[in-house]
Amino acid sequence: MKKLVVNSFFAVVLGLLFSLAPLAVNAQCTMCKTQVESSRTEKDGYDFSGLNKGILYMAAIPYLLMGAVGYFWYRNTHPRNKAMSK
């Protein structure tokens, strides 16, 4: 019962954190944004259209790796029910 209460509390806190997150986010850091803005004003011919996607790609990789580690950790620490597999 105590584990159910802890899991429910965690789910509520996680839900509140996600609900407070902004819907639209610029993925550019301040330095990248200023570099792009200065290059656009100079009109030196560089194409920075993929910069935002590149930053999102670099940010997603650590989350995917940690998710995979968590999945395999959970899978290996919780024993499987042998009666259900027969």
Overview in brief:
This protein is an all-alpha fold.
> What class do helices, strands and sheet pairing give?
mainly alpha
Count of β-strands: 0
Cα distance spanning the termini: 29 Å
The SSE string, one letter per element, is HHHH
Mean pLDDT: 76
Provide the gyration radius in Å: 22 Å
Write down the overall geometry: elongated
Largest sheet: none
Give the DSSP E fraction (strand runs of 2 or more residues): under 5%
Tally of contiguous helical segments: 4
Helix content: over 70%
Which segments are poorly predicted (pLDDT under 50) over 5 or more consecutive residues? none
Can you give a write-up of this model?
It is a single chain. With 86 residues, this protein is mainly α. The chain has a domain at 25-80. It is built from 4 helices and no strands. It has helices spanning 2-20, 30-42, 51-77, 82-85. It starts with a helix and ends with a helix.
Task: Provide keyphrases for this structure.
mainly alpha, 4 helices, 0% strand
What's the topology here?
Elements: H1 2-20, H2 30-42, H3 51-77, H4 82-85
